[in-house]
Amino acid sequence: MTQTQYVPSGSEVVQSLPWKWNVQGRIFIIGGLGFMFDAWDVSLNGILIPLLSEEWNLEPGQAAWIGTANLLGMALGAFVWATIADRIGRKAAFSATIAVFAGFTIAGVFATDIVVFALLRFMAGFGLGGAIPVDYALVGEFTPRKHRGRVLTAMDAWWPVGAALAGFVSAWFVTMWADWRPPLLAMVLPAILLIFVRLWIPESPMFLIRTNQHEKARQVIDGLVKATGTTPVQYRLDTMQDVPKMSAGAVFEQLRGVWKFSWRTTLAVWLLFLTVMFVYYVSLQWLPTFLMDAGFAQTQAFLTTGGMAAIGLVGALVATFLVEKTGRKPLLAVSAVVGSILLVLVAAFLHVPAAVLPLVLIYGLIIQVAIPVMYAYASEVYPTSLRSSGFGWASAVSRISAGIGPLLFVTHLIPTFGLTGAFTFAAATVVVAVIAMFLLAPETTGKDLQDV
């Protein structure tokens, strides 16, 4: 009897290719730049809060809307653009997010009051909010299976680069001009440049297969095989049934699909994004203010926060090294809990200058082990048809938490529990989310994306 020879699928061919810096690496770099600008924009809120508070005489509750409006815009943008990416393509959605972000960022420079400024920051956030879920879906779908954990984790190394640039560049601008507008305007030029760089990336072959665009999918796959120097093999492109189209109700169709796929996994992922990012964004947006309230000079506070972000690059590299060795869940659990506890210590020793910098730097390193692993994990637990949306909705949850959380933190938790008690409460929520992850969600280390 003749045994039928197995013919791999197109997605299996893409995920079995060797890693080449001039092929998949180029996509990693361009996608990473988009992530870097996201970090820069979010970190800039921490710079703008004290500067605008002084210029416009804002109360803490008013000033909190600088970050809250921006992050709520990102929350809306995360699931809207992620749905668009799952319906019309990763590449088109990403380009549009950057264009919207750049336009409203420029407009924010001309704002003269907190209401207009918050509205423009909301719209800029709406544009940028789709960058991360679309980025991770796109990069993950081009990355070979055996490298995917490290590559997706390494994506987060771009975050501390952007966050550190926000702190260091803003400190320099404030020293030179004592004005909040140059720090805001400075981040627009590289974001505009990214639109042109984006032209170098092809559409995801897995998306093309999922939407039955077989001719385009073969062009991309054959191009990848040739560019990586791999021997061509015969492969199949399966015809998918019920290909979803873009419609007014697409966002909610994708949301239903995410929960229908696995409510257990989705609940666990949402809890992780809700709690871990709440803790991180409170530190990112309000640490400069907490430091200045404790007696630190303005420039020193900005540089300390910039240092926290910069050392996060080391954390992301540590995560990249460990993620395939330890598995996603154990590494995420340990780093998220330890990072949250470190913030409690920062608050407790805030008036001991010699202790503050080491604690802040260690926190910056540890939390940037947790976040890249969490992002990599969330981008792996959903199938191709829901990958961008699954990540996008989780990202939206984190943005809502990051937008409303700091507002509640400074207006309710700190007055009720004090700064140390407020951070203790936040750390406890992270512990709950980690327990839920172990009880409800699967491990994804080493699995093919189509197997999940």
Report on the architecture of this protein.
This protein has 452 residues and is mostly helical. α4 packs antiparallel against α5. The longest helix has 54 residues. This is Putative MFS transporter. Keywords: Membrane, Transmembrane, Transmembrane helix, Transport.
Task: Give a topology summary.
Layout: H1 10-15, H2 24-56, H3 60-88, H4 90-108, H5 114-128, H6 131-142, H7 145-155, H8 158-177, H9 181-186, H10 188-197, H11 205-210, H12 214-227, H13 250-261, H14 263-293, H15 298-326, H16 328-348, H17 353-378, H18 387-440
Helix pairs in contact: 2-3, 2-6, 2-8, 2-10, 2-14, 3-4, 3-5, 3-6, 3-18, 4-5, 4-6, 4-10, 6-18, 7-15, 7-17, 8-15, 13-14, 14-15, 14-17, 14-18, 15-16, 15-17, 16-17, 16-18
Structure summary:
With 452 residues, this protein is mainly alpha-helical.
The average pLDDT value, as a whole number, equals 85
User: Structural class given helices, strands, pairing?
Assistant: mainly alpha
Q: What's the β-strand tally? A: 0
In terms of per-residue confidence, which ranges show pLDDT below 50 for 5 or more consecutive residues?
A: none
Instruction: Provide the domain count.
Output: 1
How much of the sequence lies in strands comes to under 5%
Pick out its properties.
single chain; 452 residues; mainly alpha; Growth Hormone, Chain: A; 18 helices; transmembrane; membrane; MFS_dom; transmembrane helix
